[in-house]
Design a protein that fits this description.
Layout: H1 2-14, E1 21-25, E2 31-36, H2 39-42, H3 49-57, E3 67-70, H4 76-85, E4 89-92, H5 102-107, E5 111-114, H6 118-130, H7 132-138
Parallel strand pairs: 3-4, 4-5
Antiparallel strand pairs: 1-2, 1-3
Amino acid sequence: MLDVALAEAKLGLSEGGIPIGAALFDRDGMILGRGRNRRVQENDPSIHGETDAFRRAGRQRSYRDKTIVTTLAPCWYCSGLVRQFGIGRVIVGESVNLRGGIDWLRGSGFEVVDLASNECIEMLSSWIRDNPGLWAEDIGEGRE
């Protein structure tokens, strides 16, 4: 499942965007929606990887039996999406570059699996080194 999110992250990077990808899966492992952070490409601050995948999955009757996979631990915005809709399981590629809300989600009873993927860590940390201002903006630290 992480391969799908990684492919989205790499696509976003090739488009000049932030390399974070995600996908939403049903209980049988079938892809419901996939997406990537497209804040730069679409000039829309709400298009994070998780929200893009969630929107592309379309309306579901329930999310309790769904899994969202993302290359990076979900930020507070995306953690709120997981909690709001009760997505049953969150699989993160890494939480080194951003811890986000995974402790909050775990404390709220959500299953969170951190794969500590070296590929995810390196791809994003390299991008952050080259784009510190855009990264600060993306995670909400670019406030005046």
